[in-house]
Amino acid sequence: MLEQDILAGLNSSQEQAVISKAKAILVLAGAGSGKTRVLIHRIAWLIEQNIAHEQNILAVTFTNKASHEMKQRASAILKVDLSQLWLGTFHGICHRMLRLHYENAGLKKNFQIIDSDDQLKIIKNIIMDLGFNPEFIEPKAVAHFINQAKDQALRPKDTKHRFSHRPDEFHDIYNRYQDHCDTAQVIDFGEIILRVYELLKNNDSIRDFYHKKFKHVLIDEFQDTNHIQYEWVKLISGREATTFVVGDDDQSIYAWRGAKSDNLMQFKKEYKEPELIKLEQNYRSSNIILQAANAIIS
Predict the structure, then answer these.
(1) pLDDT tens, 74-88?
(2) Which residue range(s) make up the domain with 175?
(3) What is the CATH number of the domain that holds 57?
(4) What is the DSSP string of 189-246?
(5) Which ranges of 81-167 does DSSP label H, i.e. alpha helix?
(6) Is there a single domain that holds both residue 170 and residue 24?
(7) pLDDT tens, 146-175?
């Protein structure tokens, strides 16, 4: 396979993104501009050009469907099985890391992941045990509070300062909830990322291990990252890795769970003026639809 085969069919902006050799790259791409294609061809190009081995590439998406599609299409381009490529969602990648480093993360090998229904049951039981009235201390509101705290990397001891407007009962329940989870060796979805974030932040040897391993870090839908995900990206990429992020500064579908489109602006500031590439050609929408969308956004 030749480089020209990988670049065939890309427009000039897409090609610029795929072959960029900058240390930090920010690709701004609206819906239908071919950003997924750019990520796939970027991975294929890095491997085909012997710039990176597949095991030295970390690519993060927001859905399992997108992860599967990207790996499948990159494998088809290169005609090889990319089994050693680390490609998945934030939760999927962090879960994999926790299984590898469970002892360092304060977990047992057989730790279990609980879903939102399990989380709610635990919270309801704690509310009853503490003698609180569930009509005034609503379990779903407490669950949202706990998840919001974890998305901001806040442990129970930290929440009163950040969420002083919340009733004291919320903080007490979070503390009791986390104690229960630690004893039962179960973790919720928010804990998956928080536990790995703390592991990378506090354990030099594990952080160095991943800095040596991942030479290229690629993040899709960067506008949908929340606080802890962005901090995780910074920890995992370190100073040596090339960091390649793709985002749409007009769109964030995960704002309800703390996503911050201003992470795009933070990236521009903190990564020392990354190469900025805009994908402005739309392959999906008609001009009328695009004009209507832009009018709504503006």
Answers:
(1) 999 999 999 999 999
(2) 112-184
(3) 3.40.50.300
(4) HHHHHHHHHHHHHH-HHHHHHHHHH-SEEEESSGGG--HHHHHHHHHHHTTTSEEEEE
(5) 90-100, 116-129, 139-151, 156-162
(6) no
(7) 999 999 999 999 998 888 888 899 999 999
